[in-house]
Design goal:
The structure holds three protein chains of three kinds. Chain A is about 35% helix and about 30% strand. Chain A has six helices and nine strands, in the order ββαααββββαβαββα. Chain A has helices at about 30-50, 55-65, 70-75, 140-150, 165-175, 195-205; strands at about 5-10, 15-25, 80-90, 90-100, 110-120, 135, 160-165, 180, 190-195. Helix content of chain B is about 55%, strand content about 0%. In chain B, helix 7 runs antiparallel to helix 8. Chain B starts with 6 loop residues before the first helix and ends with a helix. Chain C has a domain at about 25-65. A two-stranded antiparallel ribbon of chain C has the order 1-2. Chain C is mainly alpha-helical. Classes of the chains: A alpha+beta, B mainly alpha, C mainly alpha. Chains A and B meet through strand 1, strand 2, helix 1, helix 2 and strand 5 of A and helix 1 and helix 5 of B.
Chain lengths: ~210, ~170, ~70
């Protein structure tokens, strides 16, 4: 059942002020509707603009990841998966995590961690889709939520995830994840892990400090 | 389940973060991402200061400066619009020994719509050097005047160079 | 979140193991039991779907099927 975790501050780039947003554990019909009615049309439009014949081959692979609704519904029935949403009026961000992950980094080899399978921000918040993105901070909120789940599950904040190139410098430089390099099994993505110590530092991080 | 962060923490860190929010997992938008380049990011590895790399970076500096002038922007204005640090931008434009961070290259690529894979090569962030690109960059940089305006001839040359980069990126 | 309570009777051997595992894994006993439940669901679901679950010995690359059911 969908559960409100807390109210958080989300930065509105337009008004240059903070709006109140909610973080929820588990998704419901509103999130599914927002994804289908609001996110997908913008994603599809941009995709159509960018695609060339050569890239069409990739299209089917990417399509599989659009099935948020399907994935989230499956996750609801599994103890080992959790979904989260950030809402501020509409759904601003979505996350799917796996609780059955284990660390690869030497420092935490074989240790339980939360694996972030998918973390996505609404297209209207991204420069890739709009000239003036609306909100800033969705990614921060969701990563911090994943760390919180890791702590509450007894995993001490440990996380694992795969990142696309444009997010790598955030994970490495801002959050202090360890870049374990290119993962051959995950097309073009680097695998990152967050250790217990760095997770601690991250949550106590003062603005702008390097980890 | 409890959230282990405060709004104060959130506000402070969001405000100080110059970049875009991170995402994780495969792109759900189906918009193809740039193919992974062959080696470590410039934060961890200092590319060899070979003559070729210096030449490529000179070319990068010229390109960024010319595109900026074409758009009628000061360094400060471009920095603001492309969401990058002003001093970093100045260094890219003028110092061929400066190692531009991946994020800066990425932001400039997005802002000017120039292929990321080409800009990364010019920034010296890749292991292998594309000989074809190298020749084109050196030729372009050699023909550019260092003045604060863009003549129509220079404009033509700039457009042709950008077109070359776009073509090469698809190869 | 709705919570329900259960009293669990364990043998000495089971309790000792639970204590050891929790200590080794750096988790509370409750967290460990929850984790065990998740892993159990994950494995049994695959088996029920007709998939097989294997363990691979790194030194020899020898695979053995994990018998659960």
């Amino acid at each position: 059942m969908k559960e409100l975790l807390d109210q958080v501050d989300l930065y509105n780039r337009g008004s240059k002020a903070y709006d109140k947003a909610e973080v929820y554990k588990e998704l419901d019909q509103k999130n599914f509707d927002d994804f289908e009615r609001l996110w997908k049309p913008m994603l599809a439009k941009r995709r159509a603009e960018v695609h060339t014949a050569a890239e069409a081959a990739d299209a089917n692979v990417q399509d599989a990841h659009w099935d948020w609704v399907g994935k989230a519904k499956i996750a609801a029935s599994k103890l080992g998966q959790e979904t989260f949403a950030v809402e501020c009026g509409e759904t601003q961000g979505l996350m799917l995590v796996d609780l059955n992950g284990f660390g690869r980094l030497d420092a935490q080899k074989g240790r339980e961690l939360i694996y972030v399978e998918l973390l996505a921000t609404a297209p209207w918040n991204r420069r890739k889709f709009v000239v003036s993105p609306r909100y800033k901070g969705v990614g921060w909120i969701l990563i911090a939520t994943a760390i919180s789940l890791s702590i509450d599950s007894g995993f001490h904040g440990r996380l694992g995830l795969h990142s696309l190139p444009q997010s790598e410098s955030w994970y490495r430089g801002i959050a202090g994840f360890t870049d374990m390099g290119l993962d051959a099994s995950k097309k073009g993505m680097h695998y990152f892990e967050l250790t217990h110590e760095v997770a601690d530092s991250f949550l106590r991080k003062k603005a702008g400090a390097q980890l | 389940m409890k959230l282990h962060f405060t709004n104060d923490w959130l506000r402070q860190n969001i405000a100080a973060d110059p970049g875009e929010d991170p995402e994780a997992g495969p792109a759900i938008d189906g918009v193809p991402e740039v193919a992974r380049l062959t080696v470590q990011p410039t934060d961890n590895v200092a590319p060899a200061e070979s003559r070729a790399r210096v030449q490529l970076r000179i070319g990068l500096g010229v390109l960024v400066r010319k595109l900026r002038i074409r758009d009628g922007l000061s360094v400060a204005q471009l920095a603001e619009r492309a969401n990058v640090a002003e001093d970093e931008l100045r260094q890219v434009e003028h110092d061929p020994h400066y190692t531009a961070r991946p994020r800066l290259i990425h932001q400039l690529s997005e802002y000017f719509s120039v292929p990321l894979v080409m800009l990364s090569q010019m920034a010296g962030a890749t292991h292998d050097i594309d000989r074809f690109l190298y020749n084109k960059v050196v030729k372009y940089a050699a023909h550019s005047d260092d003045v604060g305006t863009l003549s129509s001839e220079e404009r033509t040359v700039l457009d042709a160079f950008v077109a070359t980069l776009n073509e090469r990126a698809k190869a | 979140m709705d919570r329900r309570q259960m009293t669990l009777m364990l043998s000495d051997k089971e309790m000792t193991l639970l204590d050891q595992l929790a200590a080794n894994r750096g988790m509370s006993k409750t967290a460990l039991v929850r984790q065990a439940l998740r892993l159990y669901q994950s494995v049994t679901e695959r088996l029920e779907n007709g998939d097989k679950v294997f363990v691979e010995r790194l030194s020899t690359l020898e695979k053995t099927e994990l018998m659960v059911l």
